[in-house]
Structure formats: structure tokens, C-alpha cells
Design goal:
- The chain contains five helices and seven strands, in the order αβαβββαβαββα.
- It has a five-stranded mixed β-sheet with strand order 1-2-3-4-5.
- β3 and β4 form a beta hairpin.
- The longest helix is centred in the C-terminal third of the chain and has 12 residues.
Length: 177
Amino acid sequence: MSSRLPEFIDPWHFAEIEKELSGRAGLAGFSRLTEVLVEDAGETEFVFRFRKGEKGRVHIGGSVRAELTLECQRCLEPVCVPVASELDVVVVEGFDEAEQLDEEFEPLLAGDKRIRLNEIIEDELLLALPQVPMHRQGDCTTASNNTGWSPEQVDEDEGQSKPNPFAVLADLKSKPS
């Protein structure tokens, strides 16, 4: 495992020697990711394998995994969410080259023939985030899910369910015009 992640790498050189990089990186080093985290403590594990594919193109395969602390959208308390992403990209030097790739390949633009591994890791973690992070049903810290409302909300004064405000529309729909 690598102890320190290089800022830039030459993917063509790494593919030539079929280099494999694996290691850990602190979550606090990913500025875009930390904006959505409740806590930036922890690490991500990564593995990258470089190889030459057909037509001499550089392929990067691997995975990125982390346990992220996000805000539960049900109770607004922290929730630990394991995320994982498998990647398989083809390194390209420009947009023209990216357009020539078959649709099965995902392009990765290498400016100045270099790439930043930190950006790849951060992009993969951001793409792996759940749309709505939540605790499992029943694991939230508040009984009413901290919203103060439930579908079966009862009017405390009358002791019965509130009338549906859209019932008037149903009446209008059933009347002949």
C-alpha cells in the first residue's frame, strides 16, 4: 500500500509498466466531498490498476471505498453510509479522442499528459453517494422522524383524521357538466 498519494501521475508510464497503486487517503483532503459530510474524519481505500488496452489506449481499473458520515434526511442526525465504486476508464488527451471512443468506455481527460489521482478518488466517492442518505427504517433517533407530521396525523381537538383537502376536487370530477 502506498503511504502517500502522488499529486500527479503519468498514466501512460504507469500503463507501460502495468503499475498497481493501492492505499488510503484521508477524507479531509477532498474539498468537494467534505462539503456534504457531517464529519470529515476517516479514510478512503483505493486500488488502481493501469494497463494498455486495444489501440494502445491507457485503461485504469480499480475501486474506491469509504464509510462516510452524512446527514440522515429523515431525522437530520449523522448516519454512517458505506460507499463503494468500481471504475474502468480510458485516459484520453482531448475531447476529440473522447468522442472517438466506443460507448462502452468512459473517458478520463488527462491535461498535460498527467492526471490527479485525488480527483479520481473524489469524483468516484461523489458519484457513489446515495441521493437521500437515511438510517434504516426504525433506526432514526426520533419516533416521528423529526418532521412533526405523519400520514395518519390526527386532529387532537376532534380525535379524528383530518379531512383530505383535495376531496373537493373529487366531488367536482364526479359531477356532470
